[in-house]
Every structure is written in structure tokens, then in C-alpha cells.
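help with this:

***
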Amino acid sequence: MIEDVRYLIVFAKVVEKGSFRAGASSLSLSTASVSAYVSRLEENLGVALLYRNTRKLSLTSDGEKVFEVAKDIMSLYENGIYDFKRSDKTSCHNLKVSVPALFIHSEFMQKIAAFIDNNPNVNLSLLYSDIRNDIIANGIDIALRIGDMPDSTLKAKRVFSFNRKVVASNELLDKYPPITHPKDLQEFPWIGLTMRASTRTFTNAEGDKIEIKYSPKTFVDNIDAAYRLAKLGSGIAVPPDFLANDDLANNKVVELLPDWSVDSLKVYAVWPSNVPTNSLIYDFIQSVSPESDSCT
């Protein structure tokens, strides 16, 4: 059926141009290919559409009927493709972006606001969730994702990273012995994240690394929620600096083991691999990347 549509368009172009050679030239096909397509259409329909010799061709009565259908298909195709190609960034476009809910409180929102201001003709749909949405199944154009990317058919570009601190409330710390080493934290309650393993790797100034494992009694699927529970004394959390810095300054939470650090988290833009580089998707990725970075 799909092949018949192609054959019908070729047939209509041959009749419109008056010869196989002219039809082939307008379609950027060889004359032999065009002749073969028309012959296959005739075979599929079980009728002769054209009478032809080396210099002339004429429509049969069946050919005239089929040409009316083929002409409409060709017109629909040509006009639709022309209108689509003619549309540019002055037209209205839809863009669906998945963003970690955590970023609601970050400077990343300034980049989103700048993109909105610079693209008034874009209908932007933002999905805020710390759970990784399936890009293909949910029709998402771009997803911002935290953490290392698994091997995938999707394209990915690192756009930025953020530092984190291990924190707890004074109320929680009063219930336990002083903390002098990362392994001491294994005895504390933690607020677990459903989307991350319950392990942490600590590094000191000398480059020594210690990995600890812990068993949270409480799990959440949102980093902001984990931090808020930590502030209330329910356990240890590892929020990004932009969430915790003000509370640290006001002694609402305490940084644990400041001589040890946990790895910063990388943030990637992820999108389908068949997107052309001149698309709105690439414009968005470029707008949220560091100014010195280019998206390739």
C-alpha cells in the first residue's frame, strides 16, 4: 500500500510532465526507475495506465481515472511538504522538556526564563519530576537528567554540574556520638532516594576515597523532600549547595565532615538521536549550556 502511494506520485508526475524523462528529471530519479515504478503500479492495479512508445505517451481510460486520484495525492504531498519547509522559527512551535523538580530552586530557572523571553513563539511544556521519564514513550523532546548516563540510543550532552554537602540537623546530631570519619555515618539514619543507590563515596584533600553503605528507613523520590526531612531531624541528606547554603549560614543544619567531600553531580541534556542540528531542541540545549560551550 505504501509503495503504491509512491508509485502514484511518480505516475502523476510523468503524466503532468508529458514524458518519462521529464517526470524522472523533476523527481531526481533515473528514467529507468520511473518506468519501473509505473509498470509496478500497473501490475498492482491489474490495468494498463499508459500507452507509450519512444516518443509519446497517452492515458488509457483506466489511466485517466487513476490519474485523478494520483494528481490529488501528489498535490497534497507537494503542498504539505512545501508549507512545512516554508515554516521557520517565526512560526509557533511546541517543545516538551522534562526537568528535575530539584531545579525549581536553582539558578537554572533563570535560563528557562531567558529562553522563554527569547522565544515568544514557542509553546513550552515543562515537566518537573525527579523520576526519570521515558523520553520516547512520553513524547518528550528534551530531558535534563542528573547523574551518569547509561549507554543509550539517545544523544546526551553535559550541560552543568552542582556541588553537594552532607548535612543533618542539630537535633539529630545530639543523639549520636561525634562524627570523625565517613564510616561513622553508617550508624546514622539516612533519608534514602528511590532513584539512587544507598551508597556515598567521600574524598579528602589527600585524595583518599572511602565508600560507605547505609540502610535508610525512609525513602523519598524527591531531593527537596529528602532535605526538608533532614532539616526536621529525620536523617542525613546530601542536598546541593544551592538548597543548603542559607540554612548552613543560619545554623539550621550542620555540614558533616567538611574535610571530606562527595562527588558533584553532573547534569545532562538528553534527546532523540534523529533530531536535526538546526532544530529548536538544539537551541534550547545551547541556551541552558555554559556560554563558552557549543552543542554539537
